[in-house]
Amino acid sequence: MRTLLTVIALFASVATTAPAFAETSSVTAHDHNAMMSMPMDHSSMNHGTQPTSAATVYQGSGVVKAWSDTSVTFAHQPIPALNWPAMTMRFGLSAYKGSPLSVGQTVNFTFIQSASGYDLISASAN
Ligand SMILES: [Cu+2]
């Protein structure tokens, strides 16, 4: 009796873990693909309906209005992904690895939402 119960318990635990494993590995493969194609593929940008640790990267373009060690101010074009109209706003620089931008320069840029606002990721002259 004891052996039979053990066998049943083992079988049940294998049966419930196996599908979970399959799902986890397919999600990982999917995320990997999304990351590989992110710079080019806009369609992968709106996958973030469930909480993940990877922040969504948004794209915009605009004119540099101010530059400091910690922030840049852009007068940017509308950003449909966020339902933003054109506006002038500040982005933090803690995640930015590029060179300083010049006031008056028009750039394409990418950014993420941060705990305190929005952080610039990259910018390239337009
Ligand atoms: Cu804005």
UniProtKB/TrEMBL annotation:
Coiled coil: none annotated. InterPro entries: CusF_Ec (IPR021647), CusF_sf (IPR042230). The keyword Nucleus does not apply. It comes from the Bacteria. Residues 1-22 form the signal peptide. Transmembrane segments: none annotated. Keywords: Signal. This is Copper-binding protein. It comes from Symbiopectobacterium purcellii.
